[in-house]
Write a structure and sequence with these properties.
The complex is a heterodimer of chains A (486) and B (85).
Chain A (H helix, E strand, L loop, with lengths): L9 H11 L2 E4 L8 H12 L3 E4 L9 E4 L5 H7 L8 H12 L7 E2 L10 E4 L20 E4 L2 E6 L6 E4 L3 E5 L2 E4 L6 H13 L3 E7 L3 H8 L6 H9 L4 E4 L6 E3 L4 E7 L5 E3 L14 E13 L4 E4 L8 H20 L4 E5 L8 E6 L6 H11 L8 E6 L7 H11 L6 E8 L9 H6 L1 E8 L18 H4 L2 H9 L1 H4 L7
Parallel strand pairs in A: 1-2, 3-17, 4-12, 19-20, 20-22
Antiparallel strand pairs in A: 2-3, 5-16, 6-9, 7-8, 7-11, 9-10, 10-16, 11-14, 12-13, 14-16, 15-16, 18-19, 21-22
Chain B lengths: L3 E5 L12 E7 L9 E9 L7 E6 L5 E14 L8
Parallel strand pairs in B: 1-4
Antiparallel strand pairs in B: 1-2, 2-3, 3-5, 4-5
Amino acid sequence: MGKISAPRNNREFIEACVKSGDAVRIKQEVDWDNEAGAIVRRCCELGEAAPFMESIKDYPGFSYFGAPLSTYRRMAISLGMDPNSTLPQIGAEYLKRTNSEPVAPVVIDKRDAPCKENILLGADADLCKLPVPLVHDGDGGRYVGTWHAVITKHPVRGDVNWGMYRQMMWDSRTMSGAVFPFSDLGKALTEYYLPRGEGCPFATAIGLSPLAAMAACAPSPIPEPELTGMLSGEPVRLVKCETNDLEVPADAEIIIEGMILPDYKVEEGPFGEYTGYRTSPRDFRVTFRVDAITYRNNATMTISNMGVPQDEGQLLRSFSLGLELEKLLKSQGIPVTGVYMHPRSTHHMMIVGVKPTYAGIAMQIAQLAFGSKLGPWFHMVMVVDDQTDIFNWDEVYHAFCTRCNPERGIHVFKNTTGTALYPHATPHDRKYSIGSQVLFDCLWPVDWDKTNDVPTLVSFKNVYPKDIQEKVVNNWADYGFRGAKK
Amino acid sequence: MANKWEVFVMDLGELAEGKELELTIRTLNDGLHKYTYQRAKVEVSSTLDKFADSLQVRLGRGQLSDRKFSIRVIERVERLPARYR
């Protein structure tokens, strides 16, 4: 693999985005109470440059960086690629890097770790000293973690988990968060810590390098520190926490350390979510007690403002879920030609392109997809043939509306695993993470005669001879039409 | 100085008047601690000048209620076990 020159930390990423016009510096003071959130939300809805807010009311010295990865351009920049790279190019690069050898992290001395420039311990570790924003009016609280990693370690296996579990500030030293029972942290809590009544050490890292955030968001079986190294082409620098044995990214802007309490819960939510709604109920949830805060001088807090498309929750999760499913299906020898989630589906619909070489292939794909670790995060799988451009929604929608037989092409899977965030789920199903899922099989049946039974697609590129197509395209302007040749 | 508070409820019926309630309320006073919570024994009233402090209400998904209350915070309730303080 060639040398990768990706931004190594959040600050280099911001500089690269400003330089390319993909971020704007906002000099005027911005209020942490709704205003910053409103700016980020509007940027997401307009597909704007990312706002780098350099002056925060009540919090001199701190800044915000909003919507860090809500466009494919910024995703390309985060990978050290040309911002004009196409989505298939970005996807191919992600697959190439994540199929390479794992890159182990390195642990550095505390004196060399920027995240240790300021250290608050015990009662001084007051979350209100950080510019925690009220992201949406009406949220259940100020959200500390919207684009971050909650770092924990499995007590028996020892594997490290970086996960993006949202965290709300409940009081100066307490946060509450949504941790689903099927997640890595959820399983560790319910299988180990809670039955034993033991606290689970945690660290929250905010203002990560964009590739560390990408790794924390990716449903990959590769441990996130190694995955980050594979994506960036160099080892992640870690440093030991002040109050527990966890290791955290040394270049992160802010680190919050503490303990997940086994026998005490406070309320969390509601919160504006990636589905574009406030769906999950306010409830007593996993509770994090803070023991220490460390942060860089002039720390920048990252903000993701989830809501209607499109924000990085939808964009990045769609991207990584699709590519991880592609890896899974290929590992099973299924002749997939591509997997893609349109971010505007709020990562609910997986579109799979496949060579339909045998009967039942769509069902096999759906069973693998829904039965995998990825499954709870989407509830629709649509399978189209290799002649359909999965990145072109017009083609996919046409295939769905014309080839999916209402009786034989739609298969519902009941009593699966869901999340509390599904807007269509009943209140009961949300509470217990009960799901239901559906396959839309848009393939022509293999037992249809290909000559006489399978309809012919009537399109410019499919029914005319190549020489006629070229003649028409080349004469397009001469006919009197405007527009570029295609 | 009067304080401003906010509470989340699923149903306004949770705010019964004329008796002591235990609620999770958050401060709306300006400053660094705005929106932080505490558990407290309180009394509420739909008569806005009955108590000095005011209470704003939000429903289950964050919708702001039209109903306003006044509130008296009787005492703070500490539920966090002592070993974690």
